[in-house]
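$ ./design --mode recover --in tokens.txt
reading tokens...
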């Protein structure tokens, strides 16, 4: 007898190859028009699906989970961050949650480095000036940015992406500093020539560039609070390719407006997709560079993320532990 295929509900369009493979393997319900699901749609999905494949645009909170039917056994998130899922609640209901770590590391680290360069060397601003016909020719004093070679980079969160950023930043001549919940092994520290700061406050006060690379959890919400942001040098810049909620965005905007911070490069926002109007104004004034959450947006990353989702579902359905299971200790 052939085994009944699990009903897998996918909330957004995924790369063609991934959808095709899923349709071969599972009884899959796809979202062809790609419109983000409303809460009512999500509730309908968890009432019927054996497996839900959400993305960051789906709020899988306790209200949604409370409506889940007993058949829902796995939430196989398409993405690394799971802060849009009430994982504690899911686990308490016996629902396994998986994510897609590792495959988007290099691309996200590239984008972080791109933001550092873009802010320090005024790349986004320069790229506007030429097509806007505002360039009259080379000048010794016009559009000067800041050198990054020799500066101090403070990485908040030395996981996979933080380490991939450190490798890139070393090649640009930055000195590497980091703060992490746990100190990384000595061999990693040595390979990256990274200095560990147990005190985030002390690190912040000494850095030229701060990069946020930790996950968003209750413990990291507003980790860069108004008080901590004040510890930064006025010449410092901040980049964030992790989650907007880790920085007190209003406090950061206020400091940028007051020239108490020199610039910021943000790929993520506290209330995404809404962007704080003050940040939009600062972007028009070329004080900040804002990107529409492009960290993992490469064809390769999105394909590999899909492959990971499929592997997690297959492994789980075969009765084994899926490779990318979220454990309570990770939250
Ligand atoms: O931000 C993207 C992700 O969490 O995968």
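writing sequence...
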């Amino acid at each position: 007898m052939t085994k009944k295929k699990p009903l897998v509900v996918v909330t957004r369009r995924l790369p063609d190859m991934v959808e095709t493979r899923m349709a071969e393997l599972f009884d899959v319900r796809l979202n062809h028009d790609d419109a983000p699901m409303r809460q009512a749609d999500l509730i309908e999905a968890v009432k019927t699906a054996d497996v839900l494949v959400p993305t960051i645009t789906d709020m899988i909170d306790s209200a949604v989970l409370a409506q889940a039917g007993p058949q829902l056994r796995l939430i196989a998130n398409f993405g690394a961050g799971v802060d849009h899922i009430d994982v504690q609640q899911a686990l308490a209901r016996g629902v396994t949650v998986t994510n897609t770590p590792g495959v988007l590391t290099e691309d996200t680290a590239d984008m972080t480095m791109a933001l550092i360069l873009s802010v320090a060397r005024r790349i986004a601003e320069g790229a506007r000036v030429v097509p806007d016909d505002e360039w009259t020719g080379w000048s010794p004093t016009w559009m000067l940015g800041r050198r990054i070679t020799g500066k101090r980079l403070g990485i908040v969160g030395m996981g996979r992406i933080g380490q991939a950023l450190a490798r890139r930043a070393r090649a640009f001549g930055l000195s590497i500093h980091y703060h992490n919940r746990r100190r990384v092994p000595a061999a990693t520290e040595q390979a990256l020539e990274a200095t560990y700061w147990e005190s985030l406050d002390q690190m912040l006060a000494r850095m030229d560039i701060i990069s946020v690379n930790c996950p968003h959890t209750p413990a990291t919400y507003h980790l860069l609070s108004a008080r901590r942001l004040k510890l930064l040098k006025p010449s410092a810049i901040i980049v964030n390719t992790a989650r907007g909620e880790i920085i007190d965005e209003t406090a950061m905007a206020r400091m940028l407006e007051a020239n108490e911070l020199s610039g910021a490069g943000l790929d993520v926002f506290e209330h995404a997709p809404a962007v704080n109007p003050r940040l939009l104004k600062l972007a028009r004034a070329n004080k900040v560079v804002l990107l529409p959450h492009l960290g993992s947006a490469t064809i390769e990353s999105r394909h590999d993320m899909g492959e990971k989702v499929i592997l997690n579902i297959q492994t789980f359905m075969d009765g084994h532990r899926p490779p990318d299971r979220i454990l309570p200790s990770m939250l």
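exit 0
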